[in-house]
Structure to design on (298 residues):
């Protein structure tokens, strides 16, 4: 295989209340992805727990663990055995009282390359993440792995063009977006559901175009109910990979556990950036106001 060709594997799965069971399932899927030729495998946001942010409760803090720690050690051994890069999004306990929504990046030789901490933290009905997570303080990062230089951004980060841009400017060739997004179970209008999912896909394909980079999005599936409630979230799956011009290379189903494999030709990055030179034509002298919250009239 050409050194420019990289096979990306996305694990789309449902989760149970047992972190050990979720890790075992993810391990099985990573093995299957490697058997299908995947070089880089990404799990979904908070892959080894339920999406506990539907409510504010203290019990889920018990799920948090250090990074690196027990789970990353197990995945490091797996990465080394299979010769694959693993993106592992987890609930990180940084210190007593300080927690992050993070993702560990493990190279194909099992080396822990570092972590990304989610920068944008939502606080909406069903997504009460500010109760649990401290905003990331490591900035936007790119990780040089055996197969490609990759960036990791997590779920709510995917709506922010600034995050994609800064990660691409760090040298990321593939932007990974581990995700846990779905519809409220009370939302039954199919047109609303379709519009929400379409917006989610469009914004991320736009990041691919604007930055001349591949985008790989791993979402979960299944319905998870909030504790002591009939309401919950129906995760819409549709994990996908898009090329540097926003063309969808592969897309998963809306409701099935599966492994999505897509071949990414990194040589396309040069091609699209040469023909559509958005990075060349950026007016970096004119963007200072982006550091302001809002441009109030004076």
């Amino acid at each position: 295989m050409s050194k420019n060709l990289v096979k990306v594997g996305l694990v789309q799965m449902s989760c149970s209340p047992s972190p050990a069971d979720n890790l075992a399932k993810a391990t099985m899927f990573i093995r299957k992805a490697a058997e299908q030729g995947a070089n880089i495998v990404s799990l979904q946001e908070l892959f080894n727990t339920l999406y506990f942010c539907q409510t504010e409760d203290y019990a889920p803090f018990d799920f948090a663990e250090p990074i690196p720690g027990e789970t990353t050690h197990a995945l490091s051994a797996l990465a080394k055995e299979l010769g694959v890069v693993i993106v592992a999004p987890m609930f990180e306990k940084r210190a007593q009282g300080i927690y992050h929504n993070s993702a560990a990046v493990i190279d194909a030789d099992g080396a822990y390359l570092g972590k990304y901490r989610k920068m944008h933290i939502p606080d909406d009905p069903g997504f009460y993440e500010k109760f649990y997570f401290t905003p990331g303080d490591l900035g936007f990062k790119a990780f040089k792995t055996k197969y490609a230089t990759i960036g990791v951004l997590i779920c709510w980060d995917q709506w922010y063009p600034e995050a994609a841009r800064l990660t691409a400017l760090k040298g990321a060739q593939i932007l990974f977006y581990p995700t846990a997004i779905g519809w409220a179970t009370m939302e039954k209008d199919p047109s609303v559901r379709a519009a929400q999912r379409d917006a989610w896909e469009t914004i991320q394909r736009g990041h691919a175009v604007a930055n001349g980079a591949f985008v790989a999005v791993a979402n979960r599936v299944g319905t998870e109910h909030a504790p002591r409630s009939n309401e919950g979230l129906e995760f819409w799956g549709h994990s996908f990979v898009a090329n540097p011009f926003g063309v969808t290379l592969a897309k998963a189903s809306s409701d099935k556990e599966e492994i999505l494999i897509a071949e990414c030709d990194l040589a396309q990055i040069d091609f699209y950036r040469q023909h559509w030179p958005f990075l060349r034509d950026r007016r970096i002298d004119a963007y200072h106001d982006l550091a302001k919250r809002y441009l109030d009239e004076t």
